[in-house]
Design brief:
16 helices; about 650 residues; globular; alpha+beta; single chain; eight-stranded antiparallel sheet
Length: about 650
């Protein structure tokens, strides 16, 4: 049993906090430190030299090159930065080392305050197998699982049954997890999960549990001080997930029974007391009807903490600071209420319409909404690399009711634009605006079970915004039809400009834009269009009788339009000419995302079957097999394991078998 000692240490006051993280969470902690009179120290890798968190902190220190293993995951580099700057406390944020007991122990051994639970507690709760034992001791319900001593997979299948969840005992975040529905798939799933877990956590120990279908992911925010006081800050619903990764979170949970709410909140407090928890943490449950099962405990601040802050009115980071300095909780359970509703959407650098593959590149133009809380560090002109997690930021909206919060989030996503870097903002807009989300019908498996629920379809206003802006740009400087990238310009304009565009889904149209007459005609019908002005790239058009607005960026070979959250990249076929790309020719296997080649499984001359894995690549914590497009022979290999490759780079060439 874990220690339940609540003997408070001598009060430790600190004045300088090193933030052992990057991006939006580093900014969140840095700003909270400033509000509470603390000096902040930012750390950065070479990839983040010009990042917002570096500029905003009181002090900033380089800790290493771009790879996380040599910078944000380097305990010696972080401790050296703390010593160099005189920091007397460390806030780990989330991700990276935030749940590594070795880091917490190294911080305290160095005489610094670790703003989080003790290393011993992190050791206990960081392993899902040990956490399960503690939960049982605390009287917390757990999901049926195989005996921890069982290693024979046939016996595991008999003990647990199907569907079965294979998951890493160490770590979290959906890494090292596989759902298995048939015994024939079990061995391959375990091998893949072990490989992923070993790469992510350095530990390939697996747990085998019954997979609860159509469950809801409910988590409880807890806060505890050194004097044995533990409270919950109510619950969140994090059921909207894709591949075990959270997409949208909200508070409070409206789709569970009151009895279940009482069960999970009381169980979370009991678990925290059982393990002797101090500081902020989250206890996660899987809820199905009247049943609730313990999943795991996150021994850190959560990505989704803003929704709890908005409905409780509490500042969780400030409370972390206070508890870490030995202060008692300033309230009791009866003092913590819930007012209204809040919903958070996670913005990722990924392509929702091509398998959600991670993306990289320069975010040329970034516009975050002004009518919602935004926790983000992405700025216009910033390069996003593949070294770190693809999350770019979070948009959080609140309202008196869930529907009011949902509508506010839809409006905020409409106001969001990221041009030059593919993101999931448009997908989020469709998701939050859907009937399924409105009715709170999405369980943890819904998105994976409905992969085509939100198809990419280019609306008429996006076509009009692209065509009108390109015609205006050409007319403003007819000597450079392909070189203008700043949108609208005033000046003399011919009245009829032909515009050929190809929408993201491949539909090519020849449109004629009459700037003077106010009309766009095409293969379907003519639209009456009036310009209502342009400001800083944002174009407002009256299309027929309705006003539409979009952020437009005209580039040499494409026109980017951000409209109602979605960015539409219209290709300009006339800009390519005879050199138009032939990428994807028969037999060519290209990089579906920028990243690192982990393995090459074949050599020149290897005969392969359709779908056979030629190699494996990884980017932003995601592993992807590179498969043969058809049966044939590998005739060319352009990469080696360890190579960094760009999106679209040729990796393999497979020559089809001669049918004769």
């Amino acid at each position: 049993m874990a220690s339940r000692s609540n003997t408070p240490r001598a009060a430790t006051r600190f004045g300088t906090v090193l933030v052992a993280n990057r991006g939006e969470i580093a900014l969140r902690v840095i700003r909270a430190a400033a509000q509470h009179g603390l000096t902040s120290v930012a750390v950065y890798s070479d990839a983040d030299r010009g990042a917002a968190h570096v500029r905003e902190a009181d002090v900033a220190v380089r800790i290493g090159p771009a790879p996380a293993s040599a910078s944000y995951l380097s305990i010696p580099a972080l401790l050296e930065a703390a010593a160099q700057t005189g920091a007397d406390a460390v806030h780990p944020g989330y991700g990276f080392l935030s749940e590594r007991a070795a880091f917490a122990r190294a911080v305290t051994d160095a005489g610094l305050v670790f703003i989080g639970p003790s290393a011993d507690v992190m050791d206990a709760m960081g392993r899902k197998d040990r956490a399960r034992e503690i939960a049982v001791a605390a009287g917390v319900p757990v999901v049926p699982a195989a005996d921890s001593a069982t290693t024979d997979l046939d016996e595991v299948a008999q003990q647990v049954g199907f569907p079965l969840l294979v998951k890493a005992a160490a770590g979290g975040g959906g890494k090292g997890m596989r759902i298995v529905r048939e015994v024939a798939d079990l061995r391959d799933a375990v091998a893949a999960a072990r490989r992923e877990a070993l790469a992510a956590f350095g530990d390939d120990t697996m747990l085998f549990e019954r997979y609860v279908e159509n469950g809801r992911h409910i988590e409880v925010q807890i806060l505890a001080d050194e004097y044995g006081h533990v409270v919950h800050l109510h619950e969140r619903d994090c059921s909207v997930q894709r591949r075990h990764q959270k997409v949208v979170e909200e508070a409070p949970a409206t789709a569970i029974l009151g009895e279940v709410r009482d069960l999970v909140t009381s169980a979370a407090v009991s678990l925290a007391k059982e393990v002797g928890y101090v500081n902020a943490g989250t206890v996660e449950f899987l809820v199905s009807g009247d049943d609730a099962f313990f999943l795991e405990m996150n021994t850190r601040l959560q990505v989704e903490h803003p929704v709890t802050e908005l409905v409780t009115g509490l500042d969780l980071v400030a409370l972390q600071f206070a508890v870490a300095q030995g202060e008692p909780l300033p309230f009791s359970q009866e003092d913590i209420g819930v007012s209204g509703h809040a919903i958070e959407a996670r913005v990722y650098a990924e392509d929702p319409f091509h398998g959600f593959l991670p993306q990289a590149g320069v975010a040329e133009v970034v516009r975050w909404p002004g009518r919602a809380r935004v926790d983000a560090a992405l700025e216009s002109g910033q390069r996003v690399a593949t070294f770190y997690d693809p999350m770019l930021g979070k948009i959080i909206a609140s309202g008196a009711t869930r529907e009011a919060a949902r509508r506010a989030l839809v409006a905020a996503l409409d106001d969001t634009a990221i041009l030059g870097l593919t993101s999931n903002v448009g997908f989020l807009r469709q998701l939050v605006g859907s009937d399924a989300f409105r009715s709170s019908a999405l369980d943890t498996a819904w998105l994976d079970a409905h992969p085509d629920a939100f198809p990419l379809s280019t609306p008429v206003p996006a076509w009009c915004l692209a065509a009108w802006s390109l015609a205006a740009a050409r007319s403003a400087d007819p000597t450079q039809p392909f070189g203008i990238g700043d949108g609208w310009r005033s000046g003399a304009r011919p009245s009829d400009v032909p515009i050929e565009l190809t929408a993201p889904e491949g539909d090519t149209r020849l449109l004629r834009v009459d700037l003077a007459g106010g009309e766009i005609s095409g293969p379907e019908s003519a639209r009456e269009v009036r310009s209502l002005g342009e400001s800083d790239g944002t174009i407002r058009l009256q299309i027929d009788a309705e006003v539409h607005e979009g952020l437009v960026l005209v580039r040499p070979q494409e026109v980017l339009v951000a409209y109602r959250g979605q960015t539409y990249a219209f290709a300009r076929p006339d800009a390519f000419g005879p050199t138009r790309s032939t990428a994807g020719a028969s037999g060519t296997v290209t990089a579906p995302m920028p990243g690192t080649v982990l393995a090459v499984n074949v050599s020149a001359g290897t005969r392969v079957q359709e779908g056979e894995a030629l190699g494996v690549m990884e980017a932003m914590k995601m592993e992807l097999a590179l498969k043969a497009p058809f049966a044939g022979t590998v005739t060319e290999i352009d990469v080696e394991a360890g190579d960094l490759v760009d999106l679209g780079a040729r990796l393999f060439l497979v020559t089809a078998e001669d049918p004769a």
